[in-house]
Amino acid sequence: MSDKKADSNVVKIVHWIVQIRGGLGALFLLLMVLAISGSQTILPDDSSNERSISDLLQTTPWPEADSLFRTNPRWLGADDAYSVDLGNNRVLWLFADTFVAISDQHTRRESVMIRNSIGIQSGYDPCTASIQFCWRVQEEKPRSFFPEENDIWFWPGHGIVVEDKLLIFLMAIRSSSGGLGFQSAGWRAVIVSNFEEIPSKWHLRWLDTPANIYGLVVSGSVIQMGEFIYAFCDEEPSHHTHLVRWPAAQIMKEDLSQPQWWTGEEGGWVMQQNLLQKPQPLFSEGQSEFSVHYEPSLNQFIEIQTVGFGKAELGFRLADHPTGRWSSIRNFYRPEEYEIADIMIYAAKAHPCLRGADMVLTYATNSFDFKKLIAHDYLYYPRFLRVNFKISTNKSAP
Length: 398
Description:
This protein is mainly beta. The chain has helices at residues 3-19, 27-35, 63-66, 248-252, 370-375, and strands at 57-61, 75-87, 90-101, 111-114, 117-122, 130-134, 136-138, 141-143, 152-162, 165-175, 182-192, 204-206, 216-225, 228-235, 240-247, 260-262, 269-271, 291-295, 300-307, 313-319, 330-333, 343-350, 359-367, 383-389. The protein is globular and about 60 Å long. Strands 2, 3, 4, 5 and 6 form a five-stranded antiparallel sheet that branches.
């Protein structure tokens, strides 16, 4: 690898450090976020009824499942790692910055990094499933699966199948002359109607998205409840978490022009064109990548994210409904990489369609030292965790 390329990649790592899948601002904004990381949630909770986290989640590494992401010698690691149940025993994986080998050495030193890639998993148990990784090829070189749009590139958010359409949200990023050289450019959405075919045959239809006047990026989980599709959003750089929804009928018409925002218990749902101010967030101390799903074992919705910067732990929140009221964040697992020098742990999320445990999680690892990232393949492959609930719960517990 040339010194010029190495220097460029060092800059990329600095970008990752600031973003950490949870920050797209200038460095001083990041420091401000870190300085207030111990602040209270926006919606205070009565946590007197919450059980000890040690009584709820039994979390262990799952190395047998980790092997799933190491089956293609050219696909050398990525972060992000959202999953979408496509049905018929198929799972879509959405990855952000991805190492792809360009020589028979199959090493990161002789690879390129594309902005995103995907995988199609066959089978719901990651220990026994197979996966096919996919990216575009142009002039015999690996290219991002979701292609750049002029000066904008894309890091995938989550997605959902609505009847016979696959909807995927993406974070849009562009270079900047200020700060650390890049900035958020909002979000985009794409529809795939022929997702039952192999990805090389997919037709990506990019949808018009509404004006992003409040800087809220659709980057968290997407779920369907009744007649609505709900999407969780991140506010930069504060990392307040918001909620937006669309009627499923509008999704089927490929129309995102009239989102409805949750504005709190008093205001309820408000059409974007009728907003007089920024919607009230669900909670603070969020991330730009996280998951929310209904967990039948708990009879509640659970949010999974990382907590901290660099040496991060995994945390969860609970609520009876996507609109809240959300509990305060509770740390429940410290990854085994926690004590590694220069480690970055981020992008934790749950995968409710996967089998093999009561709840299946992944998280990403990276390094502040780019040389370590290139040299050590224990970094930058998504890591699996198995979660088993140790107690029987009902709506009043935890």
